[in-house]
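Q:
Got a chain?
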Amino acid sequence: MWAAMWCDMQMSSATDRVTSALAAAGVTGEVRILESSARTAALAAAQLGVDVGAIANSLIFRADGQPLLIMTSGAHRVDTARVAAALGISSVGRADAEFVRRHTGQAIGGVAPVGHPAPIRTVVDRSLARYPQIWAAAGHPNTVFPTTYGELVKMTSGTELDVASDT
């Protein structure tokens, strides 16, 4: 029972921060609570009935020791060498769970593009522009919200970039 209450408290506080950030950014899509965890793009897409490419994965990387948020399509993987070269960064590598939580206040699998304790440098995958509506996590693995590519770029002040080697 304690674990369920802790999970509900975590969802509430992280999702509340995301909801406030979305409202401040003028995003009109409402946060949706899913029936089960959507820790992966495939799980989210299945529950929402959308193409996996329309899921905007929020991935935190270590970029020369600093957090880098890459919002990428669920349809492919980030080419870290390509991103590093495009941004003039010497190294980009996956971050561990502690690093992610410290910089976002959110757990892996539920990281939102906004609602972090401090702004995070962000890259937005251009392939997400193919979809009229995309879905992103809302601070917890069971919460998502709809948005558009333009809104995503604007709310994150993100750099638009092709992040996969096959795009």
The first strand starts at residue 32 and ends at 33. The beta strands are 32-33, 55-63, 66-73, 92-94, 121-125, 134-137, 143-147, 159-161. Residues 1-11 have pLDDT under 50 and may be disordered.
